[in-house]
Amino acid sequence: MTMATPTPLSRLFTVLLTGVLAGLVLAVAVLPVNLVFGFAARAALGNYAALPDALRTPATPQRSYLYANDGKTLITTFYDVNRTDVTLAEIAPVMRQAIVAAEDRRFYDHGGVDLRGMFRALVSNVTSGTEQGGSTLTMQYVRNVLKTDPNRTAEERAAATEQTIGRKIQEIRYANALEQRLGKDEILNRYLNIAYFGSGAYGISAASQRYFSKAPADLTLAEAALLAGLVQAPEAYSPIDGDADAALTRRAYVLDSMVATGAITAEQATSAKAEKVKLNPSEQANGCAATVSSREGWGFFCDYLRRWWMEQPAFGDTVAEREQALRRGGYSVVTTLDPQIQKTAQQQATSIYGYDNKRAVPIAAVEPGTGRVLAMAVNRHYSLDDNPDGQLNYPNTVNPLISGGGSVAGYQAGSTFKLFTMLAALESGRTLSTGFDAPSRLPTRYAAGTDDSSCGGQWCPANANPQWMDGYRMMWDGFGRSVNTYFVWLAEQVGQDKVVEMAQRLGITFRAEADARFAENNAANWGAFTLGVSATTPLDLANAYATVAAEGTYCAPVPVVSVTAPDGQRLSVGDPSCRQVLDPDVARAATDAARCPVGQQSAFAQCNGGTATAVNRILEGRPVAGKTGSSEQAATETFVGFTPQVAVAGIAANPDDPTDLVGSAVQARVIEAVARIIRTAVDGQPQESFTAPSRDLVGTPRRPVERDPVVPDRRPTDNNDLRRWFQNRG
Asked: Where is the composition biased (Basic and acidic residues) (predicted)?
């Protein structure tokens, strides 16, 4: 095979180095053995303790793997260099034999430096005009480590491949020092894990997957010989990116070399040469945008995990260090993503609006008591691809539409915020039996403008359906029928600042600047807060309701079950971070009232109607609770549902245009979507019941009023009535 013609500079280098090495070879030939080795140990060669850290403790960059919560389903990988270390036992014996035959036949005979082989190669380079390699596997390993060491500067890494005598002598010293301490198998294993095989694959594990989509333990003789032949000129010989014929020629050379070393017979070599190259190439996903295409929506969860990772001090002091840890640290990350729940959530989100619809339904599912995020779905492609003119976030986006952050503040969630008013009232000593004769409109002390919500300059919220909502209400039926005037009155009794503080305690984050400013400076006068005018996200909302489901235990949302380093050590990062933020009895009381909206009955038989009664039918009577929410003029429609095992929130909205009203008709579909996700989440799990609150928080209930449990389809009679109906609908 014809090799590249060396340049004048490289030929000069080889001449000079030949002279130096010729002297060493002559010394070996004429001096006593003990004198030569004494000289080598003291002068020409090195010692293990003086080696760079990267050679003594390899720090080669490796890709990190992200798996679903089953620990098997791959979400994606992160890497700068496509590499994963494997043990020698995980590499087929023919692969080990092939690489030795191809690159260093005397590997098991020399001490790291094959002076005779190097001298022969250098003489051939000078006399024949072709370049031959004289480096042993150990020397190649040294060079590969130094040129990829992430702890060295770019200049230092570049120096590892410079054509200088000093660099070559240093390489010899380092190789000899390694051989003094490490066994041949250890060196071979390290070499196979760092060598570049072309087409972006570093190490034998990545190469086996890249070319044949199999583990290195399963390589055949012909496949192993092909891969071993790539190392000399990876890009030129690569059958994917380079010259397939050259790859076959090189494979034949490796097979002949294996015969020469005694690894295989001539017959085996002939048979392997006759095999056609049967590539089964696979791309290794890199980053969140490269998640498997059949798993739409997984990219948004991946992105949430990546954002979480960048906030963890365990992975570095700076964001840059944490990014490097993710892409070069070789971590195995088992995430909290449940494939079945995610699949259902994505199906439900896209069943409401398609991928090309400007409106979206972001959905999040959280596990109470741990904060583990089980699913994140939305009818968008997680992609950096361009969108049609005038379309900001659809059909492609990488913005965190489900979790919030960056430019995404969230969406108004309407009456789902009444939960925080109820909790604040219960915590203040009021009972579920706290009653109020709720009028159609309620004058408040809060100033208002001149629109329909004003009564003489004061804010006057109205009930969406007076016939069904007005009258004497307690927390049960006030929550079940979503009576605006009852909860605005209740919030006034408790103090709006207490309601705002309760929401924050349960994890509601004010990402919109105006909301954050109001919460900090004027919470006591935030009269409409209980009606859900603050922006929030499905993840925040699901986790807040999960806190109630867990009887007052708040857990910070977390996307990780475990993080394991390449050495097998499991990091403590990602363990649930929980604290008790509510008295358990207060949470139980709120849950008892939250049974009403979904068409179930409280422990004290006080539910007499709900706005989401389809949930009980879909869950087939399984204990469940929840709340609907509509923002002003039905700009958004929300539903949150929960059992002791899962909490799910979905919000229909236009992420780019708050003035685009989704309309009240979509609420029923959001309710059904969330209920079906809950059903998937609890399928196969034991049925768990909610614990009834103590009598201390019940008070003196009345006999329930038997009325139609479904919200009547009362059509507004005039424009003002229509506006109020949309504006204040629960």
From this structure: 703-724
